[in-house]
Amino acid sequence: MLMKWITREHPKIDRIACPWLIKRFIDPDAEIIYVPVDLVINKAAELNAVPFDLPGVEYTHYDDQCTFDYFIRKHHLKDVALDRIAAIVRGADTDRHDFAPQAAGLSAIFMGLSKNIPDDHELLELGMWIYDGLYTWAKYLYKQKHTKEAPVEQMLLEVYNKYLKQSSAKRTPEWTKELKEMIQDQIDTNMHLSLQQVSQDLEINPSYLSREFSKYFENLSFGDYIRKLRIEKATSLLETTAYPLTEIAYLTGFSDQSHFNRIFKKQTGITASEYRKNLLKK
């Protein structure tokens, strides 16, 4: 019996990768159907097709994994090469290019192709060839480097790593200065600042900001960095004022004294009360 699979039109990443996976590893004769998003469920029932890559259906995203991951798990596809491809697809489909270095390239390729090729099935046909090539790489060639037997490319890469990369590493993005000022204002005025709010104010993609933040802020995540500054301010208040701990917790942006004590001990190794007692002993 011919198996039908149906999903949203205008595919880019997951909705090309999943049909490739279906036709190459699950059902070679499967029919792939693309329709407008608001018609998927009704058409699935009408055509007796399995919907995928759509909220609320079985074949969809779960946690930080995409539909491609679920197909692999659901159909028990034990193949290391597919696992490598899954990381690339997941990174490209969720804008988490840290999952695999090839994710950014895959995303760029299919974003460009989807703009150039308006016919979904024509795009899928080309995508089948691309994923066939990616699978061959993932199975047999993933350890091979382009510069392995190319002395000129290797020399250029060495020059880049030695000079250009070092030079670019010294240049700090302009947004970091503005972000530091925003964070300092937050600390000084006891406001609450979220990553989402910061991203909107800076007009920077939150996923990008989350990935890049630690590079310029002491190798800490946004949340850890904010907590570190709050504890530093709390330490200063303990050293220079006689404010009760409840007041210090409020002034440093913690929801209550218990939360403040827990974070303070995690950061310093002792409670705020112990820190103040040690100050009095000096």
Question: Would you summarize the structure shown here?
Answer:
This protein is mainly alpha-helical and 282 residues long. It has helices spanning 14-26, 40-47, 67-74, 80-93, 103-116, 120-141, 151-170, 174-189, 195-202, 206-216, 222-240, 245-251, 257-268, 272-281, and strands at 4-8, 31-35, 50-51. Helix 4 (80-93) crosses helix 6 and helix 11 packs across helix 13.
How does this structure look, described?
This protein has 282 residues and is mainly alpha-helical. It folds into 2 domains: 4-141, no CATH class; 174-277, Arc Repressor Mutant, subunit A (Orthogonal Bundle), CATH 1.10.10.60. Helix content is 65%, strand content 4%. It contains 14 helices and 3 strands. It has helices at 14-26, 40-47, 67-74, 80-93, 103-116, 120-141, 151-170, 174-189, 195-202, 206-216, 222-240, 245-251, 257-268, 272-281, and strands at residues 4-8, 31-35, 50-51. It has a 3-stranded parallel beta sheet, with helices on one face. The relative contact order is 0.07.
